[in-house]
Amino acid sequence: MLDPLDMTGLWTGQYRYPEPWVPPTGFVATINDNAGSLSGTTTEASELIDGNERADIRGTRNGAAVSFHKYYDGDGAYGHSVTYDGVLSSDGQQVEGRWAIDDYSGTFVMHRNLQSFEREQLEASTRVGITVER
Predict the structure, then answer these.
(1) Dihedral of the CA atoms 112, 117, 119, 122 (nearest 10)?
(2) Could you tell me if residue 120 is inside a domain?
(3) What is the DSSP letter of 122?
(4) Which helix (H) or strand (E) holds 117?
(5) Can you give the pLDDT at residue 124?
(6) What is d(CA 18, CA 5) in angstroms, rounded to the nearest whole number?
(7) Which string of DSSP letters, residue by residue, matches 37-98?
(8) Residue 3 within a domain
(9) Which of 6, 11, 95, 130 is at 20 to 30 A from 122, Cα to Cα?
(10) How confident is the model at residue 52 (pLDDT cuts 50, 70, 90)?
(11) Mean pLDDT for the chain?
(12) Which has the higher per-residue pLDDT, 126 or 111?
C-alpha cells in the first residue's frame, strides 16, 4: 500500500526572509521519499549571480513532520546549508514551515498540487528552466 503522505515528486515553492520589504524567492524541488527518508535537489533563480543556484536536500519525513537540510553546491554565490522544518498537509500536497541559518530564519511554503500553484510559483518554475504542465 502506498503512503498517501509520500513526498516523491516535483514541488514548487517560495521562501521568505524576515524583513518584510524583501520579496519572496521562488524555487523548484525534486524530492524522493523512501519510507520517510528524503533526498533530492532544488533550483532557484539567483539575484547574486547570473544564473541559478542549485542545492541538494537530505532529511526525513515522520508522518506529517518534515525536516531537511538544503546544501548549496557552492558553484554560485552560496556554500552553506539551510535547515527546513515544516508540516505536510493531510492531503500531502503542501508543506509549510520555517527555514533557519543559525539564529536567522524565515518562512517557506511548497506545493505539489498543480491546481493550487500560484502565478509566482509558475513563474519561478519558468525562471529555473523547468516546464510545469497544467
Answers:
(1) 30
(2) yes
(3) H
(4) none
(5) 54
(6) 29
(7) EEEEEEEEE-SSSSSEEEEEEEEEEETTEEEEEEEE-SSSS---EEEEEEEE-TTSSEEEEE
(8) no
(9) 6
(10) confident
(11) 83
(12) 111
Strand partners, 11: 29
Which DSSP helix (H) or strand (E) runs through 114?
Answer: none
Q: Per-residue pLDDT tens for 60-75?
A: 999 999 999 999 866 6
Q: Which residue has the cell 505539489?
A: 112
Alpha-carbon distance of 115 to 73, in angstroms, equals: 31
Which triple of cell numbers denotes residue 9? 515528486
* CATH code of 93's domain: 2.40.128.120
All 3 cell numbers of residue 111?
506545493
Task: Tell me if 19 is assigned to some domain.
Answer: yes
- Comparing C-alpha atoms, which of 13, 12, 58, 6 is closest to residue 33? 6
C-alpha cell at 66: 518534515
Q: Which residue has the cell 543559525?
A: 102
